[in-house]
């Protein structure tokens, strides 16, 4: 017998080899062409092995079925060959013996066989013994074994194919770089930045520790680390990797350190006025310089009460504690420290912050929408910022916010409506942002805790809603230099806790509301520069706590000056210039023992003399405006002429200093060096 007996294992392994290598099978047919295009225009082979390969190349789900068909076909062929050989049905001289059941007999020896060769006779079916042949018995067991082997090798083939596919995918993933860093399902594999040369490409893959850091950072931050080798983010990452204690830190501490170092580099930390201990690995970041603006804190204390600051800064020596007991920042103050640049996005990773203040610096750029992540914030002050753009609506997510200070910023657009959801606010300070527009909404009445609303020089338009009367905790309402119209609602008199009512330089009309005298804690009342009409109520003299300013200058008020205003003994300024007032200057003004500035200029209808009682004020009074009142007459009392720091000037010849006595020397009104007309 020529050659060795083939077996099923050899056949199956050959099929697996054809499957893995992509070679053509032994069945012939159209040559297999591996198609990698998405459309798969390759002709599917008619040969079973090639057809299975072509279907896989096209991504068809039928290729596994085709493989099974090939295996079954090969096994059937192999069984048939073995069956024939086991029965001894072999051909002699290359001629096959007729198959079982044929009635044809071979010639007997010596008859038609001149060669005298032995010829095997065909065994008739009827001559086969009734007992089952040995080969038939073995065939049953062999078939069962072959089925088990077929099942095992089929599984082996499929696993082998899957292994080959996985290997190909892994190789492609390693060799082909990906630009997509947006996936959040796995940590990106990022090359390390060389500490010796920031411009050279790295040669190592990240370690597991580095991968852990990357997994904590936003995808945008990882992209910045990759994109710019000199970015604040990349420098912060390198700084972290140089920290020998890094494995011992909690995730929050790692993110905190990264955020602080990124903030340092993004705001030119090397040029800060004070950057003591910053970036020192051997000093806890809780001991890095943070500057509570004690002057600002004093303002906040006066504004919000001692308890407000005590909540933020427990009494400690020598300075307030910035971190909690777990070493996590809760307060970060960097006021007046020469910060430049823009607050980086990574600053907003410090999600445990309760207060942040960075006023009086040289910051620029917008407040990130990520500010909404700082859900524990109670105080947020970012002032004196240029090119800051719009106020992000995400500030409205800070439901714990009690103080919002955006003063002196170059904001544009309008105040987002979401800010009016912050009903826990104690104070909203957004003054001196003239390009920022908004109107006071009716929701202002929902702010039961609001103490300060300061929005002067702002671009506010519209009217003051009557609902403001229900914001009964208001202590300061300052909306000067805006475009408010309409009348002052009478409900404003319900704000009995007001200390400051300052609505100067608007377009308010109507009369002064009654009931303002109930604001007994008032120390500033400034309604100057409007179009108010009517009289000055005598009841306003009951505002005996008024200790700074009573100012209705520049309106259209008429009537006389109430003598009851002489009861405002704590006031230091009383200004009624540029109205239509008439009558005399009340002698009771001699009781204004704290008065430093009296202004009655340009009323035109004032008459009579300057009361000599004003001489009693010569130690405190430093400025009097009397010009523009041609009906005034008589001699100015010498005590007034001798008042502290007085010079005599007019609108045409003003005093050089801030103080002075201003009047027209007409001869009808004389004294203080101005000659009087005889008679």
UniProtKB/TrEMBL annotation:
This is Leucine Rich Repeat. It is found in: Membrane. The chain crosses the membrane at residues 155-176. GO terms for cellular component: membrane. The keyword Transmembrane applies. Residues 184-205 have a biased composition (Polar residues). Residues 180-205 are annotated as: Disordered. InterPro entries: Leu-rich_rpt (IPR001611), LRR_dom_sf (IPR032675), Plant_RL_S/T_kinase (IPR051716). Keywords: Leucine-rich repeat, Membrane, Repeat, Signal, Transmembrane, Transmembrane helix. The keyword Transmembrane applies. It is a single-pass membrane protein.
